[in-house]
Write a structure and sequence with these properties.
heterodimer, A: alpha/beta, Rossmann fold, Alpha-Beta Plaits, 29% strand, elongated, B: 239 residues, mainly alpha, 10 helices, 0% strand
């Protein structure tokens, strides 16, 4: 896992950038560690694009420092900046391949720009196409490939110069969910096999949920939340994160939500989140065995977020003060979140 | 390549039949027109393309933004394009005399035609370059490409089919202008149409010239389209 003591690959310190007096990046600071898959989540207009453009040198920053492998980007000169840019691979929402060039030449482009000879370029490009599973398309043109295939080519191209980090700018936003899945799998494999550091910039919760090891939520140029995926999904702290995760978190069925009140009812409803080892147990059975309280699931979701089981439930328990107290104590002890929502 | 002597034309005026006129004068007129068109097109490409690139790269928001260059160049290019060809040619006569040595004849017309076609093609080329996806340019920029590499590896290959279509339009406008050059001392089909078709109202000559000009334009357009289409086709733009 991520170790804070190793020097970060990329570090932003109080980076600010304004356009026409409006702060798009507001004193942003964070670190990207070697080998992690960092998800940068935010709504459109949150400042994600500007952030990327500042990192890769398309946009200057007003204040603060960006350090890449220990080098302060605002202090390096043009020539050295180009060398650094080559160490940062990028993929984009609309692939940005050269439509007039064959796939093989598209992949080899970064090497050509760096002045590598033709034999080296070809050899490396074929290796990379093999890696992304498209070696049979070497002589096709981008227009003849599907969106998913084009993104694979773009990934191969981004890796041509052996970058130390891959920035993905909404790379799956234009793809259907099945293709998205396969692209994400490819990225995870690259991360495991080549220890490639990946930054996923996206507005899609699903994307970060599937692959990111750590998550940063950005809103209005500020970091509103930072932490492990599991922690953030179970207990989002900020309003923005909560609204972004809305589709993921189950809500009470309408018919029950309408009837619910704070004082009295036949059943008490608890919101109960459980994860990790606890979630691998038959926890409702355990609850009954240890407290004698029977709980029903009203609504819920159970799944694995990066191999960790997570359950988000609404439970109904008989509204009897003694039983409720016992159940509450048990739930609190075993779950990540246990809250009395109301009575029905 | 020398034009018809004016005396020759006068002397033969009443004795030649329509057929004789067409047979004796047409081949040379066609040759003169082709020569003027080819040479002027060559110069239009040679100077217009770099000028178009300059306009493109220095325009605001582009990777070599420089309005101190862009604005004056724009003004010169647009001014030249505002002046109708025939007035430009007449007004430029003193300059033509200095550069070419004389103000009439094919070479003088080539100079004038080029001066009028260069800004035209420059704007066309600029438009073609603007058609290249900005995101693509940026994607290559962040790979650490130099400005020269961006132009050479991305802008030109990506804009190629559009550049060819623009050049085709330019060549056709040169053919049209070269016909007009017949009024002010140019040879070729324009001269033939003016001296025979217009001044001596000979409908056979007039119609023949118009017919040949149309054929010429169709051929140029066909050739240009075919080249552009070939490039588009290998891209497989169906996706």
């Amino acid at each position: 896992m991520v170790n804070d003591s190793t020097p970060p690959l990329l570090e932003l310190r109080n980076v600010s950038r304004s356009f026409l007096g409006e702060k798009v990046l507001d004193s942003l600071s964070f670190r990207i560690q070697k080998g992690e898959i960092l998800g940068l989540l935010g709504r459109s207009g949150a400042g994600k694009s500007t952030l990327i453009r500042c990192i890769n040198g398309l946009e200057r920053i007003d204040s603060g420092d960006i350090l890449f492998e220990g080098k302060n980007l605002s202090l390096v000169r043009d020539e050295e900046y180009r060398l650094i840019q080559r160490r940062i691979g990028m993929i984009f929402q609309y692939f940005n391949l050269l439509s007039s060039q064959r796939i093989i030449d598209n992949v080899a482009l970064p090497l050509k720009l760096a002045g590598e000879n033709k034999i080296t370029r070809r050899k490396r490009a074929y290796e990379l196409l093999d890696l992304v599973g498209l070696s049979d398309k070497a002589n096709s043109y981008p227009g003849q490939l599907s969106g998913g295939q084009q993104q694979r080519v773009a990934i191969a191209r981004a890796l041509a110069y052996n970058p130390s980090v891959l920035l993905s700018d909404e790379a799956t936003s234009a793809l259907d969910s099945e293709t998205t899945q396969s692209i994400l799998e490819l990225l995870v494999n690259l991360n495991r096999q080549m220890h490639l550091t990946i930054v996923l910039i996206t507005h899609e919760v699903e994307v970060v949920r599937l692959v990111a090891t750590r998550l940063i939520v950005v809103d209005r140029g500020k970091i509103v939340e930072e932490g492990s995926i599991k922690d953030i999904f179970i207990g989002p702290q900020s309003v923005v994160t909560r609204s972004l995760l809305q589709i993921f978190v189950p809500r009470l069925p309408k018919i029950i939500a309408e009837k619910i009140n704070c004082f009295y009812g036949k059943d008490a409803i608890f919101e109960f989140y459980i994860s990790g080892k606890e979630a691998s147990q038959p926890f409702l059975n355990n609850l009954e065995a240890e407290t004698g309280v029977v709980a029903r699931i009203l609504q819920g979701r159970f799944e694995f977020i990066q191999n960790e089981p997570i359950g988000l439930f609404f439970l109904a328990i008989e509204a009897n003060q003694k039983k409720m107290d016992m159940a509450y104590a048990w739930l609190k002890c075993h779950g990540d979140k246990s809250e009395l929502v109301g009575y029905v | 390549m020398h034009g018809l002597n004016a005396m020759e034309i006068k002397a033969s005026l009443w004795v030649m039949s329509n057929i004789e006129i067409l047979f004796r004068l047409l081949p040379e007129a066609v040759f003169d027109t082709l020569w003027m068109t080819c040479a002027s097109s060559f110069f239009a490409l040679l100077f217009g393309l770099p000028l178009g690139l300059l306009l493109y790269t220095t325009s605001s928001g582009n990777f070599r933004q420089n309005l101190w260059i862009h604005r004056p160049v724009s003004v010169v290019v647009d001014s030249l394009r505002t002046i109708p060809f025939i007035i430009l040619a007449a007004g430029m006569m003193p300059l033509t005399r200095i550069v070419v040595g004389k103000a009439v004849g094919n070479e003088a017309m080539i100079f004038v035609l080029s001066v009028s076609a260069i800004p035209f093609y420059a704007r066309m080329a600029e438009l073609s370059f603007r058609g290249v996806d900005k995101n693509l340019i940026e994607a290559v920029r962040v790979m650490g490409a130099t400005r020269f590499q961006i132009i050479w590896e991305v802008a030109i290959p990506e804009a190629l089919s559009s550049l060819i279509i623009g050049f085709t339009v330019t060549v056709i406008s040169i053919v049209a202008a070269s016909a007009m050059a017949g009024f002010i001392g140019g040879n070729g089909l324009g001269r033939l149409a003016i001296s025979y078709g217009y001044q001596r109202y000979n409908p056979v000559v007039m119609i023949s010239v118009i017919f040949i000009l149309i054929l010429l334009n169709i051929a140029i357009q066909w050739f240009g389209d075919r080249m552009a289409h070939k490039i588009e086709k290998i891209k497989g733009s169906d996706c």
